[in-house]
Amino acid sequence: MNFGYNSLLGVLILAGDIWAIINILQSSVSNEKKLIWTIAVVLLPLLGLILWYFLGPRDRKA
After folding, report:
1. In 10 A of CB 48, how many CB atoms?
2. Distances (CA, A) of 29 to 2, 26, 49, 60
3. What residue segments make up the domains of the chain, in order of their start?
4. Is the pLDDT of residue 26 over 60?
5. What is the mean pLDDT of the chain?
6. How far apart are the C-alpha atoms of 58 and 27, rounded to whole Å?
7. Helix, strand, or coil here: 60?
8. Which of 10, 13, 51, 62 is the most exposed place for a label (fewest CB within 10 A)?
9. How far is CA 3 from the centre of its chain?
10. What is the pLDDT of residue 62?
């Protein structure tokens, strides 16, 4: 089996998507926004992860 940088990148994106989905579901935003963000991350793995990281809901902790 030939595992290269592509498979490593895929695993990193998958781990990031799982992390994002967990954080989305734990956030305090409405269920509709949670659903929209989850669908975005699932359908557009890399772009959805990047968009969520910069534009997604944040639970601000002081």
Report:
1. 21
2. 43, 9, 17, 12
3. 5-55
4. yes
5. 87
6. 7
7. coil
8. 62
9. 24
10. 43
Please state, in angstroms and rounded to a whole number, the distance separating the CA atoms of residues 49 and 61: 22
| Residue written as token pair 């997604």 | 56
Q: How many residues does the chain have?
A: 62
And the tokens for 31? 């269920």
In the numeric block, which tokens belong to residue 40?
């975005």
Tell me which residue of 9, 11, 36 sits closest to 21, measured CA to CA. 36
Percent of the chain with pLDDT over 90: 61
Return the closest-CA partner of residue 37 out of 62, 11, 28, 9. 28
pLDDT band at 50 (very low <50, low <70, confident <90, very high): very high
- Provide the token pair at 60: 């601000």
